[in-house]
Amino acid sequence: MEASDHRYSVNTKYFFIALILAPIIAGVVISLLFAIIGTLTLGQPPSDGLRIAFLIPVVGSASGAPFYLILGGTAYWFTFRRFGVRYLYTAFASVLAVLGIPILSFILWYFPILNIDNHLILRLLKPEASLFVIVFGSVFAIIWGSIFVYIYKKMTTSNQIDSV
């Protein structure tokens, strides 16, 4: 087999639907878990401080989404084409995609293509923030990647059952 041969096909429509839905579902589920845990530990609805903490997954989804779509989407596409739809390979591709953020950070920071000081998401690209982004980004990338694989598998499996 040559290096350019691909063994698996990818349903483009389901791929992009799952790619977009994964961070949304992850943000909602993690926010709900924060709310449930906060309510159970306090015995009452959360205070304003904890309500702000519930926004962490939402802000994380918003700030990580561009990197997820560009770097993660590309990594998932090549992983699916080469290794098929598998959780372990997708988790590995997720971490590798997150490791691409410091490279992007270096390029955008030291070759000022964009005005970084005026955009909240691009502040995460500062070299000082790279370790923070890698650590937390790796955790969320694996979660998003797992949800992505789950959604993609469900959609392709249900499509195969419907077409029979």
Explain what this protein looks like in three dimensions.
- Helix content is 78%, strand content 0%.
- The chain contains six helices and no strands.
- The chain is flat.
- By secondary structure, it is mainly α.
- The rounded Rg comes to 18 Å
Count of helix runs:
6
Structural class: mainly alpha
Report the count of strand segments. 0
Kindly report the average pLDDT value: 78
Short description:
This protein has helices at residues 12-42, 48-54, 56-83, 87-110, 120-123, 130-163.
List keywords for this structure.
single chain, 6 helices, mainly alpha
Question: Which secondary structure elements does this structure contain, and how are they paired or packed?
Answer:
Elements: H1 12-42, H2 48-54, H3 56-83, H4 87-110, H5 120-123, H6 130-163
Helix pairs in contact: 1-2, 1-3, 1-6, 3-4, 4-6
